[in-house]
Structure formats: C-alpha cells, structure tokens
Amino acid sequence: MPASARPTVAVIGATGAVGASFLRVAEERELPVGELRLLASARSAGRRLRFRGEDHEVRETSEETLAGADLVFCSANSDVSRRWGPVVAAGGGVFIDDGSAFRMEPGVPLVVPEVNGSDVEWHEGILSIPNCTTTPLVLALHAMRRVAPLERVSAATYQAVTGVGAAAAEELRAQLRAIASGDEPAPPRELPHQIALNVIPQVDDFAEEGYTREELKMQNESRKILHQPDLRFSATCVRVPTMVGHAEAVHVEFASAAPLEALRRELAAQPGLELQDEPGAGLYPTPLSTENDDRVFVGRLRRDPSVEHGAVFWVVSDNLRKGAATNAIQIAEEVLARGRLGARRAAPAL
Ligand code: A2P
Fold first, then answer.
1. Is the CB of 17 under 6 A from ligand 1?
2. How far apart are CA 249 and CA 251, in angstroms?
3. What is the pTM of this model?
4. Beta pairing class for 246-254 and 150-158
C-alpha cells in the first residue's frame, strides 16, 4: 500500500459486542479508512451497520472478502482467528486479534501501546491485544514500576458479562426481567451458572493446578507485555452481574521501597490512566462511572501492611473499549505511525 493511501480495513466480528465498540471508537479516533469491509458469520450476511454516516452491508468472512485487506481486526472466537490470521498475514495484510489464539506465540507482539508500543516493530503479520483484564492491570503496573521493580502481583477480578459476548449480556437482562416479574429465570446457556444476583468464581475453563484459563492468561500475558518472564503472579477471576467494565483488586509487592506518594505521582503521570482516589469524598472508579471511557482508572491506593514493600489498589476499565476495541485501534495507529503496515521484521528474543 503506498504510504499516502488510506488502508482497506476489514472487521471480523463486526456484529458482536466488541465489533460495535470498534466501529464507534474508529469513528471517534478518526482511524484512516479507505474501503471498509464489515464481516461476520454467514448468519449475519446482508445485515447493515452504520459507519461514518453510511450504511455498510455485512458479508460472510471468506478468502474473497478478505483479499487485499491492509488491516484486519478480528473479535470473534479462537477458531475464527486461527482460520483467518495466517491467511491475512500471508497476503501481506496486518491482522490485529482480540482473541487468545496467538497471544503467547513468540512471533506475535502482544501490545498495550502505552507500555510496549515499540513491540509492534517486530510483527510478522499478526499482532494481538491482551485479555481485557490484563490491559488495565499492566498499564497501572507499568506506571508503578518506575518507582521500584515489581516482584509479585496478586489480583482478584470482578468481570462484566459483555466480556463473554453480546449473548451473555442478553442472558443477564433476561434473568433480571424474569426475577423482577417473580418468575424463575431460564437455565443459563452462556455462563456456567445464573449470573443475576450471583457472582461466579469461574471465567473460562479450568486448566492447570486449579487455575482457569483466564487466570493463566493474566499471568502469562502480563509477563510478556512487561518483559518480565519471572514476575510472580496469581489471580482469581470472577464474573459479576455488571454489563460493562472489569474491576480488579490488586496487591503488588516491590523489590525495594515504593512510597505511596511516588506511586501516586507516577500513576497520575501515566498516559491512558486516570487516578481517581479521594475515598473520603466517595471518589473511586466503578464500572458504571467508567463506562464509555477509553482511560484506565485507578483508586483505593494504599500500603499493604502484610509485606515489607507492598501496595494495594483498585483498577477499572471499560472492557469493550480499552479492554478490546480501543487498544486494537491504538495498535493500528502505532503500526501506521511506524510505517509497519505490510513490512516484515524478525522478532527479537525477549
Ligand atoms: P455473527 O453475528 O454472524 O454470529 P460476541 O462476542 O458479541 O458474541 O460476537 C461474536 C462475533 O463473532 C459476531 O460478530 C459473530 O458473527 C462473529 N462470528 C462468530 N462465528 C464466526 C465465524 N465462523 N466467522 C466469522 N465471524 C464469526
């Protein structure tokens, strides 16, 4: 693609929860788009979606509808990513994936631009955005490690149903309607248990040593993005009955003294992050107060008296925006700014 041309952009999963957010964020951030192709499964072919005041027909994802695309965003499922990522990369396009299919592959940069934007330099056609709980966490940790090296992280998450997808959000709505009318909710289909009036200590399937895949994703992805392969890490991921916005209670331990005032200063200075921490005035972030915002919010920062150099904080961000669509678009901006659309370079050993 000539440097002056506007890229042909395809969105796989355009009809989904992240797809809708993607189109809104691309409008707001004025992503350069020449031709736009909105793609989904065959079920959605023929639907129409609006972008920049114009209707676009949704088409089935195929070799034909992806041919010649310069930038492809994918938010569907791992099978879809695995099917189309290599096809796009082989055709010279750049595939930016919202799923977990490629995140830990050595040749795939896993990027939060404010933390490791320069990692886009070594992409080989596929780049990945982190899990929607990893992104806000590493942004806060990245600011804090300017005060003292990170040694250990322990987190508990409070994750909204849109993290599962649009169908899970509808399941919560239907359960709430049934309960409000005094009826028994229908058995859950998208989540392992009823989510209305409940919390579920399981996000994704169980994997190793009693941890879920989501918990291991947080651990492995944080290490990769922060370039700290030995970071000690443990998480418990919990689904809660909120629609949008993932929250996390995080305990962090440092290798040396990390005074609260210095942590506060670095958090306040961190691009993409907002410190909202006046507990006396009832000011701290919540999923509702941070919805539709691209920033990651941190509050409740305090010393952890149970370890020598530790802090505790609360971090919240919109899982559909910074947790997914916004981060994907920021990666595309980084790729464009660095002239890395279509070009290839070898991955360094991390
Ligand atoms: P469709 O609406 O046609 O099923 P969510 O995460 O909100 O559930 O959205 C998932 C997105 O992934 C939807 O846009 C969905 O399209 C899309 N999708 C699901 N299966 C496929 C597939 N086989 N090929 C392309 N897109 C798919």
1. yes
2. 7
3. 0.94
4. antiparallel
Q: How many Å apart are CA 273 and CA 6, to the nearest integer?
A: 30
Please provide the size of the chain in residues: 350
Catalytic residue among 123, 142, 246, 309: 246
Q: Is the pLDDT of residue 347 over 60?
A: no
pLDDT in tens, 154-178: 999 999 999 999 999 999 999 999 9
* Residue 154 CA, distance from chain mean position: 19
Decide if 74 is catalytic. no
Looking at residue 174, its amino acid is A
Strand-pair partners of 96: 73, 127
CA distances (Å), origin 298, targets 4, 66, 152, 279: 39, 39, 19, 12
Task: Please report the DSSP string for 162-202 in residue order.
Answer: GGT-HHHHHHHHHHHHHHHTTPPPPPPSSSSS--TT--BS-
Report pLDDT digits (tens) over 94-107.
999 999 999 999 99
Distance 43 CA to ligand 1 centre (A): 9
- CA-based nearest residue to 266, from 311, 328, 222, 228: 311
- pLDDT of 99: 93
Nearest ligand 1 atom to alpha carbon 168:
8
Helices 326-337, 17-28: axis angle to 10 degrees equals: 50
Spell out the alpha helix ranges (H) of the chain: 17-28, 63-66, 78-90, 113-116, 134-144, 166-180, 213-226, 260-269, 287-290, 326-337
Distance, CA 16 to ligand 1 centroid (Å)?
A: 6
Nearest-CA residue for ligand 1 atom 16 is: 40
56, 74, 132, 142: the catalytic one is: 132
Residue 193 a catalytic site member: no
Asked whether the beta carbons of 36 and 61 are under 8 A apart, the reply is no
